[in-house]
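Quick start: read one record
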Amino acid sequence: MSSRRAVRLLLLLLALVLTFVAFGSPSFTWGNEGVRVQHPWAQAVAAFGAALALAGAAFGFARLAPRIALGLAAAVLVALSAHHLAWRLEALDAGVNERSLRGAVSLSWSEIVSVEPTVGAVTLRSRSGKRLVIGTRGFEPDERVRLERTIARRVREAANLQH
């Protein structure tokens, strides 16, 4: 095996391992005031490192097709890294807030009229028509259930205070 091929193989292996780390579950910080959910910075760094490894491996190929494929995969991993750095969910005393690359959405508990859990998300709907879809595909099952129960309890408490 040539050294060039060995380096390319090592870079692809490194990218695979780092991609596995990048797709880990977000971290939950539970406190008396509620919960904060975000991806650990190490996941964002792993996604970016995997993108760099793929880009480096792409230069080892003479053909255009593998270079393009690895370049596209690297671009997806850079986007994942940016998403991990930007995304945060908070369900605190005042309400629920989600921040992402698309912007921020905030709903107070008293605004929420329905909580709709589905297989990969929890959708919150407000009186004004605002909708917040919380993607839960990467959550650990017990953390997802705990988050759903916390949100439902806060919405119920806010509705009881209005009556």
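The chain is about 50% helix and 25% strand.
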